[in-house]
Amino acid sequence: MVSEDLRKLDQLICNWLNIVDDILPQLIEEMHTDTKKDRFDLVTNVDKQIQDHFQAFLKTELPTHQLLAEEKNNDDIQPYEGHLWIMDPIDGTANLVKQQEDYCIILGYFVDGAPQLSYIYDYPHGKLYKAIAGEGAYVNQSPLLPPPTLSIADAILSFNPHVLNDETIKDLFQSSFSYRIIGSCGLDSIRVIKGQFGAHINTNPKPWDIAAQFLFAKELGLKMTGLDGGEVDFGQGGPFIISNPGCHKEVLEIMNKGRGYQK
Ligand code: IPD
Ligand code: CA
Ligand code: CA
């Protein structure tokens, strides 16, 4: 049974996402890019301003809620206590900069460590994916159903070949139907959620890359685990897979075969 409070909160967030629709075109038009760790690690004014806007919104509307987000310092955050939002203001920043497509906003809401609301907003395609604890998942207003079971032989797998050793890549290619990567952890995960991909693997995601996926996986009967098969800590991040239940075991067996997936 979903509480009235959770419904009101969902409505509040949907209203905020409507405001995003109004401000994003201008932000994108004025886009300028900076680098962080290296020339491939990009951040733009769009990332920063969307996050700042949400932070200001929380301060006004929900002042007791904490925000753990990519483009801010999170040293004072207690992720496992009280009301927590985890945000990736733009997931797939390289896609935004290079292609102006295939990026999203990720939001996950946790209460005392339990996921309650999740959003993956695919702005360029006008699709809001959301999950509500105890109720299910939606794309825009339409319910999402658990995807049909996919065996590894029939599945498209999504992973970053740059971070896996040759043996693991070869095994994944040979065992699966095919391989694709979008380059946004949120949108690669959505393909699994919709049954288009069998699994998406990220060997080093941060909390904001995977914040929303916990609840989608729970509501739709998908597997979301560490690459060792154990639990993923939403406050820390770490190696993860989101998978159709029909191929999770087989993909993990390949990842952990021999000396493992690392280079
Ligand atoms: C990145 C994307 C990418 C994934 C990286 C993330 P960002 O997020 O999700 O697909 O492979 O691990 O850091 O930097 O675009 O928010
Ligand atoms: Ca990200
Ligand atoms: Ca980001």
TrEMBL record:
<dbReference type="InterPro" id="IPR000760">
    <property type="entry name" value="Inositol_monophosphatase-like"/>
</dbReference>
<dbReference type="Pfam" id="PF00459">
    <property type="entry name" value="Inositol_P"/>
</dbReference>
<protein>
    <submittedName>
        <fullName>Suppressor protein SuhB homologue</fullName>
    </submittedName>
</protein>
